[in-house]
Amino acid sequence: MILVTTSGTGSMDQYASALAERLPNIRQLPTSVYERSVRRFNRSLLSAGTLRALYLDVEFVRLLRGQDDAIHFPNHHLARYGRFLKQPYVVTVHDLIRYFDLKRRMPLIHRPNLRDRLFLGLDYGGIKNASAVIAVSRTTKADLVEQLGIEESRVHVVYEGVDHNQFRPVDARPFEFPYLLFVGSEQPRKNLAALIEAFARLKRSGVYPDLRLVKVGAPGGRESDFRAATERLVATFQIGDSVIFDDRVHPEALPAYYAGAECTVMPSLYEGFGFPVLEAMACGSPVVASSGGSLPEIAGDAAALVSPRDPEAITTAISRILTDSVYREELRVRGVQRAAEFNWDRAARETQRVYDRVGRLASSPRRAMPLL
Fold first, then answer.
1. Are 241 and 210 members of one domain?
2. pLDDT digit string (tens) for 65-108?
3. Does a structural domain hold residue 312?
4. 5, 72, 182, 195: which has the fewest C-beta neighbours closer than 10 Å?
5. Containing domain of residue 123, as a range?
6. Does residue 252 belong to any structural domain of this protein?
7. Helix (H) or strand (E) holding 315
8. 304 and 207 assigned to the same domain
9. CA 372 to CA 365: how far, in whole Å?
10. How far, in Å, CA of 323 to CA of 197, rounded?
11. Furthest C-alpha separation in the chain
12. pLDDT band at 362 (very low <50, low <70, confident <90, very high)
């Protein structure tokens, strides 16, 4: 098996790196094609950027075709290349968010343009054509079966892990004042708007005059000005002095942000997995999480689960953590225990089992689409 490893710094790139470190007998195929071509959404179909990306795509397919073993694509957007291969391949699917954006009136990220629709069609066709599919949660597996019609027997659930050497309770905090923590982008699916409204309710109550909201992470991709929408909302609720945007936090500093927070809040409308929930728990932060998508599956009984579409419920859950020390400690202890169940060594072992099942197919050629 050959594992494609990508050069970016996002969670899907880190997934590939984590597996590569723990599967020493698997060959790696490093590439920058995901960062330089695949993830560039909302470009015009007829543009210089699209033509440059197409050149990179063709060169990458040629590189893949020259390999003598089955391929593991570590994220679903790389599945588009599988359609051009004769050898078997495995795809890891982290979520079907952009598939839902093809169908929904209100997008979870951004409404796909013509170019995106064409390439996303290749992505999901590539998933359907894979020899095996790894889903990072039961929620994602159910989506694959229900939405793409993939046979259950071909979809293997392998949970992602947490780096417990990095994410652990630490005796440090980046700020002196009390704060709520949100880690993630500002794409609509992250539902930061509901948290901002809930935070504004807490501030209006007058009970928490020193409380701040700290938002860690870049706004999102270049598809839309997600930050401008967030800033408008903050201005509408008149809480600008109490909201801090910390776009670039070094990974080594992130545990202190979690550990120092009164609680971490993840009110997403949809997640295929949800790393911040487990990272926060591993660092001893109480968590308020959405009852939607995969988050109840990942959090178990170790988080306060709330409807993501009910800011009042989010406010109530946060307020209880702020005022009930016994409850806060219960969530902290449960969270540390729950996060310990997710580790990369287990993910690697279970991934290897999928490889072993696919290995016998390596000698069986498949029909491939012609290369341009």
1. yes
2. 999 899 999 999 999 999 999 899 999 999 999 999 998 878 99
3. yes
4. 5
5. 2-161+344-359
6. yes
7. helix 311-323
8. yes
9. 20
10. 19
11. 69
12. low
The pair of structure tokens assigned to 134 is: 């790894």
Q: What is d(CA 332, CA 131) in angstroms, rounded to the nearest whole number?
A: 41
Q: What are residue 305's phi and psi, to 5 degrees?
A: -95, 135
Same domain membership, residue 211 and residue 113: no
**What is the per-residue pLDDT for 52?**
86
CB 266, CB 185: distance < 8 Å: no
Classify the phi-psi angles of 42: left when phi > 0, otherwise alpha if psi is within -120 to 50, otherwise beta.
left
Give the pTM: 0.91
Statement to judge: residues 200 and 327 lie in one domain: yes
Please indicate, yes or no, if residue 42 is contained in any of the structural domains: yes
* CATH number of 300's domain: 3.40.50.2000
- 372 contacts: CB under 8 Å, gap ≥ 6: 54, 58
Position 39, amino acid: R
339: which residues sit within 8 A by CB, 6+ positions away? 162, 164, 167, 278, 279, 281, 282, 302
pLDDT grade, residue 48 (50/70/90)? Answer: confident
Q: Is the confidence at residue 180, as pLDDT, over 70?
A: yes
**C-beta separation of 213 from 199 below 8 A:** yes
Q: What are the beta bridge partners of residue 73?
A: 91
For residue 335, give Cα distances in angstroms to 173, 216, 252, 291: 19, 20, 20, 16
CA distance 256 to 133: 36
Q: Pick from 127, 95, 82: which is nearest to 12 by CA?
A: 95
Let me know whether 322 and 353 are in one domain.
Answer: no
